[in-house]
Write a structure and sequence with these properties.
Layout (H helix, E strand, L loop, with lengths): L1 H24 L9 E2 L1 H5 L8 E4 L2 E4 L11 H5 L7 H8 L3 H8 L2 E5 L2
Parallel strand pairs: 1-4
Antiparallel strand pairs: 2-3, 3-4
The structure holds protoporphyrin IX containing FE (HEM).
Protoporphyrin IX containing FE binds next to helix 3, helix 4 and helix 5.
Length: 111
C-alpha cells in the first residue's frame, strides 16, 4: 500500500511537471513587433545609434550611414527624427532604396 502511494506521488509530480513546461512555452506576445514612440527614436540621433521612422515604421540606420551611395550626411540628417518627407521626396519611386530600407526595419511607430 505504501509503495502504491509513493508511485502515485511520483507519477503526479512527473505529469504535473510536463504540463507546466507546456504552458510556459506558449507566449502570444512573442510574434508582435516592438513599438517605439518619437521620444524613443529621438534618443538615437547620432552616428553611434541612428533610428528614424518612415511612413509609420521604425528603422535602425546606424550601419547604413557609411555605405549610403548618396553620402553619409543624407542619412545623418534623418537620425532621431521622422524621416518620411526626406526619404519619400528623394526615394519615393525607387524600388532599390525601398528594398534597402526594409533591411533595417526594427518595429512600428507607436500610435
Ligand atoms: C532610409 C534612408 C535611405 C535609404 C535606405 C537610401 C537608399 C539609397 C540607395 C539604395 C541608393 C542607390 C540606388 C538609388 O539611387 O536608388 C541611394 C542613392 C542616393 N540617395 Fe539615398 N537612401 C536613403 C535616404 C536618402 C536621403 C534622405 C537622401 C537625400 C535627401 C538621399 C539621397 C541619395 C542620393 C543623392 C543618392 C545618389 C543617387 C541619386 O542621386 O539618386 N538618400 N540611396
Amino acid at each position: 500500500m505504501r509503495q502504491k502511494i509513493l508511485l502515485f506521488i511520483l507519477l503526479s509530480t512527473f505529469l504535473g511537471g510536463c504540463s507546466t513546461s507546456t504552458t510556459l512555452t506558449s507566449n502570444s506576445t512573442d510574434t508582435q513587433n516592438p513599438t517605439y514612440t518619437l521620444a524613443d527614436i529621438s534618443l538615437h540621433n547620432s552616428a553611434e545609434s541612428c533610428y528614424t521612422t518612415i511612413s509609420g515604421k521604425v528603422y535602425d540606420l546606424t550601419t547604413w550611414i557609411a555605405v549610403h551611395p548618396g553620402g553619409d550626411a543624407a542619412i545623418l540628417s534623418l537620425c532621431g527624427t521622422d524621416g518620411s518627407e526626406k526619404f519619400n521626396a528623394k526615394h519615393g519611386n525607387s524600388g532599390s532604396a525601398k528594398y534597402e530600407l526594409s533591411l533595417f526595419y526594427i518595429g512600428e511607430l507607436a500610435p
